[in-house]
Amino acid sequence: MSERRRVVLATRNQGKVKEFNRLFADLGWEGISLAEFEGVPEVIEDGETFEANALKKAIEISTYLNLPALGDDSGLEVDALDGRPGVYSARYAGEDATDEKNWRKLLDELESVPMEQRTARFRCTIAFVVPGAEPVITTGSCEGLIAREPKGTNGFGYDPVFYIPEMDKMMAQILPEEKNQISHRAKAMNRLLEVLK
């Protein structure tokens, strides 16, 4: 595969890498995880928005490796919690929290909130940086509700407690190919592909 078709994904999260590579398949690109490079410094995600974090990741990794890089930041925004966990989604229950600890904390906080007020969305911002070019930034979201109990074994993060009304399923109950039609990451990625084409 030629060098220009390889894109460094500014993540070590293998769930994300798999998702991105399913989305990249149509372009004939290959997303490479940071885990495949020695000594790449950790990017500190200290931005206050998804866009700031995505851009920081893409710029730092692209600059360090001198390769095209794609950074994304995504998370869950819950209306009843004023948009939390937001940029702190991955570490909501603490720095080394597991996915389950994060969504359990969320369910605890929403315990007294009625179902109709448990509206939420997954939001994803993608930044694509090619050395010497202007960054391309796109965003996508997926609307749903936070369920009272987890269901399903697909996906990762908050997928087991994120209910999609039009599918009458949790995000963790749908197949990967279905998720790639409706997810926040897929929508942001499709917008990026439209720009890049």
> What shape does the CA trace take?
globular
Overall SS class? alpha/beta
Strand content bin: 15-25%
Count of alpha and pi helical runs: 5
Please write the CATH class name: Alpha Beta
- Gap between N and C termini: 19 Å
The CATH topology annotation reads as: Maf protein
Largest sheet: 7 strands, mixed
From N to C, what is the helix and strand string? EHEHEHEEEEHH
Radius of gyration: 17 Å
User: Mean of residue pLDDT?
Assistant: 92
For the largest sheet, list the strands in their spatial order. 2-1-3-4-5-6-7
Number of domains: 1
Task: Estimate the helix proportion, in percent.
Answer: 25-40%
**CATH architectural type:** Alpha-Beta Complex
Low-confidence parts: none
Number of strands: 7
